[in-house]
Design brief:
heterotrimer; A alpha/beta; B mainly alpha; C mainly alpha; B: mainly alpha; two-stranded antiparallel ribbon; 2 strands; C: mainly alpha; ABC transporter involved in vitamin B12 uptake, BtuC; globular
């Protein structure tokens, strides 16, 4: 193939594993100059890993990358940038204390430390770039005073200013208003007309139909299809994304839902971005909480757990209204939260698993605040056995365990509190297949023992397979309540804001 | 206006203090004592500029007082050996830079917290100096005091020198790429790394520069008297940190202007004479200094909390 | 990322560190014993202990603070302020030494509480808060005494605490052992120590585990203030006088002892017995150098160097791990275009 008609970027059967987790198992993807190529898939389908492979942050285990027909080997982030690959992440990496113009300049300028700064040129450059993307942002504004979408626009200005040939946009519209989205689309179209290849990742199907030329769907780390957008329908895309059958891997629901344990009435928290949430969870019931990243699911959990306390509405537990102003309150009331970010919030990596497990029940297991190693070790042994945790003993540091086992330790810490309500946030994220099904069995067992379970998950088959009922969140509130035996596309459609 | 709010509020406080002094204690404004006050503060101003850089890049250096003493004594000894001023000055600056490099190596190279590193070097240099000098003063040759000029001439020279340093550095923080790198790294070291800056090397350089400025300031102090006190510079670190913090340099890094530091330093420097004029005992100075540091930090803390909602 | 072999080795390394330190103290002892003829005498041993009790107290309560990832620079200044206030309460307010002592302990707790409120209530960095109170406490001491007032002529019954023997040992030793023992129990045998460590390792993780992070941090600083007041009383009894410059630079010795004793300046790891060994290493060095006819300043200088050395060795594993992880993830480098 000659360089002239070779695609701008070509990925062939790229694979990447992290330990036992196979994030990418053979993805093929090509990007032409002057096209917008949408990348679609559920959370965990491998999109972010794919981005990191293209930007050189991860080295693939197998498969090849080629640009203009030339093979790219051992691509480093620096080399990727030099080749003109730019990526706009969801979290902007800007300097909050500096002005917009300077933020852009620091990314684009090169040269020694002792050169004189040309403020007029910096300002002109910023004005030009901001104008090109139609952003109404003063180049003199401090970045910390900007809203998140404005900061994202600054990032886009940086990417455009660097003259990139490939621009990857990771959910750029997640926090933009309608007007800002329209501006952004104009920018993307402008890039396309200049021969730039744009990889566009978004969950909003309408955007893809409006903007993209082609779309590739990823599922379980594989590319399941690439096709022109013009010939596709929304239903067809959703089907491609969800695709597979919900296998019989999930333990069957046998329990009968009992009394209402947790009831939320128009719960809201302005700082946490949660509004007007009403929901009931019964004893013995698993309620799946579905929705896209940024829909407010983790934020709702943080409100229930008292990390960002509610400022409106009501929480009642067993029919009694309660206040949850801090995590200590939540623990005292019997609400447990197994957080999403295991390594930062779920387990203290440096401490023993026994110490991790007893952490939320100090007052119960250690009367008079006196450590009792024996009781603690027994507690740990019990959970190690019950949950099948693979560790060399209660003295093993949390950091020495695999992801799935860390998750079980985190779960054990909260089961030890004997909660009435258990909130699980992405309980099987980054967990290998075997441990995943073990965790599913544990969750079902807990529900059958009478616990009320709220399970946040972005893994659609998991939500469908585990839940007795499914609540779908969008924009910080619950938009749909579906029965557990729903069709995948119905849940996906509700999460995407489509009318099925 | 809003952007300079922090600096303007310090300048405003300084003006009010001066106004009060002008109304109730006009004696404060007699040229002779005023000039002496400014001369005394000239070396402090130079060190405070360096400290501002250190705090902007999110570090701290409490060894500057000891560095100051070591540089002063060494400069005095060299001068006593009849070295000419043109050689003593660079030697003092180089010695300061060397001590700064030691701090920088430990902080940037080994990534140790700067507070503990400089605490250790503070006591090491100070005790080493005490051991060597046993409290003895260094007698200087006659022609060194005030650079061999008249007293007022020498004083004006020092004040001028400090202001030149301030102006140059204030210009550099605004208009030199290196100055902007310091702000960028202090604002977000990770974003700086992604933008291709080098946080560790820059931190090292800032400590070296801090030391060099201390060497210069020590020289500016040595020429003010016929002898060098080996205890000179004790408590200097607090004075300059207070000036920087009061002047609007945020301890969380990335923010602050040298003009604010200048105003902060003058404000603090005027407290002691103001106390005397109002017949408050001077022993309160240190306590007031501490209270002002806390007040400034609390004010900044409350302000930044409001901004993050 | 996290290397299990390093983490599994931590406890072993800690043990090794403390054994090593014990060895250092022993070698120091033997060396100075061979150099200074009267060094090894019982009298001199008691002298060493007597002189290290105050710093020992400050170091012992500095340990929980550093375990939470904080620092207290105001300890020495607070000792000075409390010594003055104790003298003031006894001489000018006419309180008995016991009553004055009780009030002083209360004042110490309040001063520690000031640090705690600023650090936990306003979420300010401990470093700059305690730097401010370092200046404030010392300055208040100077202001109260006008820099010259000295409190002396305490009754012999009070001076007994600092100068006489009780049960065959210096009278302050039982008190010190009581406090050190209590803090050891607090840190190693009670849930408080567990939570201090959790906060030091991962403050957010501790919050998500339902630990009252703010209250625990506050406890560490209030405890430090109270014990600093106790140290001030013992200091006054030992010297028979209270002056505004009491305890100048003690915070450095305390921090050095803690770090030397194997407590990580980044929080989480460390022990009270390690701190006690650190205090012993410094105290023996100080006293021994005097017996070896070295000037006092050499000891100060060596203490500073020792701190740099201890810090550097404690930082090495972390640095190596960092470099290793950097190599794995391949950092973006500057664009050169």
């Amino acid at each position: 193939m000659s360089a002239a008609n070779a695609p701008l970027l070509q990925l062939s059967s790229v694979a990447k594993s992290f330990g036992a987790v196979r994030a990418l198992r053979g993805v093929s993807f090509d990007l032409r100059a002057g096209e917008v190529h949408a990348l679609l898939g559920e959370n965990g389908a491998g999109k972010s890993t794919l981005i990191k492979v293209i930007t050189g942050a991860h080295q693939p285990d197998g498969g090849t990358l080629a640009m203009d027909g030339g093979l790219l080997e051992k691509l480093s982030p620096a080399a990727a940038r030099k080749l003109g690959i730019a990526c706009i992440y969801q979290q902007p990496a800007l300097f909050p204390d500096l002005a917009v113009a300077e933020n852009i300049a620091l990314r684009l300028e090169s040269g020694g430390a002792l050169r004189k700064v040309d403020w007029a040129a910096r300002r002109l450059q910023a004005v030009g770039l901001l104008e090109r993307i139609g952003a109404d942002i003063s180049p003199d504004a401090e970045v910390r005073s900007l809203s998140m979408p404005e900061q994202q626009l600054v990032e886009i200005a940086c990417a455009i200013g660097s003259g990139a040939r490939i621009v990857i946009m990771d959910e750029p519209t997640a926090s933009l208003t309608r007007k800002e989205v329209a501006l952004l689309f104009a920018v993307v179209r402008d890039l396309r007309s200049r021969g730039v290849g744009v990889v566009y990742i978004s969950h909003r199907l309408e955007e893809i139909f409006e903007l993209a030329d082609r779309v590739t769907v990823l599922r379980d780390g594989q590319s399941v299809g690439t096709c022109p957008v013009s010939g596709m329908t929304e239903a067809g895309l959703i089907k491609l994304m969800v695709g597979r059958e919900v296998a019989q891997l999930y333990p069957p629901a046998e329990g009968v839902a009992g009394q209402v344990v947790l009831a939320l009435k128009q719960l809201g928290c302005a700082a946490g971005g949660v509004k007007n949430v009403s929901l009931e969870i019964r004893a013995g019931e698993i309620v799946g909480l579905a929705g896209l990243v940024g829909a407010g699911r983790t934020e709702l959990a943080r409100v229930l757990f008292g990390i960002t306390p509610a400022d409106s509405g009501e929480i009642s537990l067993n029919g009694r209204s309660i206040t949850v102003a801090s995590p200590q309150d939540a623990v005292g009331q019997g609400i447990a939260y197994v957080p999403e970010d295991r390594r930062r919030h779920g387990v203290i990596l440096e401490m023993h698993i026994a110490q991790n497990m007893s952490m939320a029940i100090h007052s119960r297991i250690f009367p008079a605040a006196w450590l009792r190693d024996g009781a603690e070790a027994r507690l740990a042994q019990e959970f190690i056995r019950n949950l099948g945790i693979k560790a060399y003993g209660p003295q093993a540091p949390g950091g020495s365990l695999s992801g799935g086992n860390q998750q079980k330790v985190s779960l054990a810490r909260w089961l030890a509190t004997r909660p009435k309500v258990l909130i699980l946030d992405e309980p099987t994220q980054g967990v290998d297949v075997g441990a995943k099904s073990e965790i599913h069995k544990i969750i079902r067992r807990l529900a059958m023992e009478g616990l009320a379970v709220l399970m946040i998950s972005s893994d659609l088959p998991e939500v469908l397979g585990m839940s007795d009922r499914i609540a779908v969140m969008r924009g910080g509130t619950i938009t749909a309540l579906l029965p557990g035996k729903s069709e995948a596309h119905a849940v996906m459609a509700a999460a995407l804001g489509q009318n099925p | 206006m809003k952007r300079y709010f922090r600096e303007l509020s310090v300048a405003g406080a300084l003006l009010i203090l001066l106004l009060v002094l002008a109304l109730f204690a006009p004696a404060f404004f007699q040229p002779q004592p005023l000039r002496s006050l400014l001369t005394r503060e000239a070396p402090t101003l130079v060190v405070a500029c360096g400290m501002a850089f250190v705090i902007i890049i999110r570090q701290i250096d409490i060894s500057v007082g000891s560095q100051f003493a070591v540089c002063s004594v060494c400069a005095g000894l060299l001068a006593a050996l009849k070295w000419p001023l043109v050689l003593v000055l660079p030697a003092s600056v180089a010695l300061g830079a060397l001590m700064g490099a030691f701090n920088g190596m430990l902080v940037a190279g080994l990534r140790l917290p700067s507070i503990v590193v400089t605490l250790a070097t503070m006591v090491t240099w100070r005790e080493a100096l005490r051991w060597q000098r046993q409290g003895q003063f260094v007698n200087l040759p006659d022609n060194l005091q005030w650079f061999g000029l008249s007293q007022s001439g020498g004083q004006w020279t020092l004040i001028g020198a400090a202001l030149v340093v301030l102006t140059l550095l204030a210009w550099a923080t605004r208009h030199l790429a290196a100055g902007r790198f310091i702000y960028a790294i202090g604002s977000d070291a990770e974003a700086a790394r992604l933008a291709g800056l080098r946080p560790q090397s820059t931190t090292f350089a800032v400590f070296v520069f801090m030391g060099a400025l201390v060497g210069l300031a020590a020289m500016m102090n040595v020429v003010q008297s016929p002898q060098v006190d080996p205890k000179s510079g004790s408590g200097l670190e607090l004075k300059v940190i207070a000036a920087a913090v009061v002047g609007g340099v945020a301890v969380s890094g990335g923010r602050g202007r040298l003009w604010g530091v200048f105003a902060g330093l003058l404000l603090l420097a005027c407290i002691s004479p103001a106390l005397t004029h109002f017949h408050v005992e001077a022993y309160w100075e240190k306590a007031i200094q501490g209270a002002i540091i806390l007040l400034a930090v609390v004010a900044d803390g409350v302000r930044s909390r409001k901004q993050i909602r | 990322m996290s290397n299990p072999s390093i983490q599994r080795g931590w406890k072993a390394a800690l043990l090794r560190h403390e054994t090593l330190l014990l060895l250092v103290v022993a070698v120091e002892w033997l060396y100075f014993n061979s150099v200074g003829p009267r060094f090894g005498s019982v009298d001199n041993s008691f002298d060493i202990i007597r002189h290290s009790v105050e710093i020992g107290l400050l170091a012992v309560v500095m340990t929980p603070i550093i375990l939470t990832g904080g620092i207290d620079l105001s300890a020495g200044s607070l000792l000075g302020l409390c010594a003055i206030l104790f003298g003031k309460l006894w001489r000018d307010a006419g309180l008995s030494p016991v009553m004055a002592g009780v009030c002083t302990l209360g004042i110490g707790a309040v001063a520690g509480g000031l640090n705690a409120v600023l650090i936990t209530g306003l979420r300010l960095p401990p470093l700059i808060v305690t730097l401010g109170t370092y200046s404030l406490f010392r300055g208040l001491g100077e202001a109260i005494t006008r820099g010259v007032d000295t409190f002396t002529n305490f009754p012999a019954s009070f001076l007994f605490l600092g100068q006489e023997r009780w049960l065959g040992v210096p009278a302050q030793v039982p008190l010190f052992l009581l406090v050190a023992g209590a803090v050891w129990v607090l840190v190693h045998r009670m849930t408080f120590g567990r939570t201090f460590r959790a906060v030091g390792f991962a403050p957010e993780g501790a919050r998500y585990a339902g630990i009252p992070v703010e209250r625990r941090i506050a406890l560490a600083y209030v405890l430090a203030g109270t014990v600093a007041a106790l140290a001030a009383i013992i200091y006054t009894a030992r010297l028979g006088q209270a002056k505004a410059d009491a305890g100048t630079g003690y915070e450095l010795f305390a921090i050095t002892a803690v770090v030397l004793g194997g407590t990580s300046i980044f929080g989480g790891i460390g022990s009270v017995h390690g701190t006690l060994l650190g205090v012993a290493a410094i105290a023996v060095l100080n006293n021994g150098l005097v017996h070896a006819r070295q000037p006092r300043e050499v000891a100060g200088m060596l203490t500073g160097l020792l701190l740099v050395l201890a810090l550097s060795t404690s930082a090495l594993p972390k640095l190596l791990a960092l470099l290793r992880s950097h190599r794995q993830t391949v950092n973006p480098e500057p664009i050169k275009s």
